[in-house]
Amino acid sequence: MILEPLVIDTDAKAYVAVHDLLDEPAADAALTHRERQIRAHTRDVVAREIVPRAAHLDATGEFAHDSVQALAAEGLCGLVFPDHLGGTGDTNVAYAVAMEEVTAGCAATSLVFMTQMHGAYPILLAGTNEQQHRYIPPILNGSRYGALGITEPNAGSDVSSLITTATPTADGWSLSGQKTFITTGDRADVIICFATTDKTQGRGGVTAFVIDGDWPGVTHGRPFDKMGMHGSSTSELYFDQVAVPRENVLGAVGRGWSIVMSSVVKSRISASAQGIGIARSAYARTLLALRGIYGDAIPAEHMFALAQLRGRILQGRLLLHAVARQVDADPDITPGHIGMMKQSCTDLGFAASVEATRILGPYGDLAVLGIERGLRDSKVTQIYDGTNEIQKLLIGREITRSLKEMR
Fold first, then answer.
1. pLDDT tens digits, 26-72
2. SS3 string of 314-340?
3. Which of 6, 113, 146, 297 has its CA 20 to 30 A from that of 66?
4. Considering 255, 285, 320, which residue would you say is the last residue of a domain?
């Protein structure tokens, strides 16, 4: 009886048609012609290459290699990077709409996709010309996988508490420690590792290093079993007296904290776009499932719920696009502004998935519809890239500063 979600997972034209129908003029009005082109192109690639694999990746835990390679082959992994490094030099808004499209098709693929950008961006931000040309193009073309090594068993959002240390040697540095919950960590070829180089300096004693994943002393842990995002691997990384050449310091010694803070602006745009993409997928699949169950006579109570959900998704999209546009104009946007976007959009992805399962009742629990997958995938977006509790803390701090300025 419920055929439409199955059809859109195997028929690229049907997938594109459904999601074209859900585009909102109020959001499209703020996009440039180029940004709409990128959205259309990404949607087409996702329909052909990503969506047909999504359920299989979730069921088997197979890494989304082929899906990411398809995105890289279409030049979509380098949207915010300059062309001389293999990118296309597009806006953060273009990246956000592309991320939304990839996520709507397969959230796990989107997590690998965005981690490629997250691994390459600090090198663009603070790397030397040699570092940029050596490491960035292979990440953007998909021939190497990148990873961001920040979180430790006892240090997550508080980077100044890192236990991983780097001590000076005659030729550079010796790095030892452990990282955990590292996306793509099990297969990372390029690792941006943050380590403490001076424990007395707090945040000022954190330094970033570019590490090759096959260097002696680097050990990749086995992927964790997870609730969602099964097509994306998450593991631990171990460093045992890894000899790091002096030229692999990223930026200056002691500048690691500033690199983290500049990088999370991009990563929180990624997570926010994931929230909108998951919410939109939940809405589309619920609408099609209801049509499969009721035909054209969908009960009013369900239409009321969909109407409310549609409005919330539009609000989230407008927030995502507006903040991404603000980042294009001013990269030094405050943590509170980024935090409002990240917290609101990822909360929306989870809430929309919960609401979709409620509307459909027993049907919402069926794996074949893909809605319960979105519910599982969405939860982690509220946790990584700074938990939403951390985002509220950052927002609250800005409110407090504003009140003090009123005196």
1. 999 999 999 999 999 999 999 999 999 999 999 999 999 999 999 99
2. HHHHHHHHHHHHHHHHCCCCCHHHHHH
3. 6
4. 255
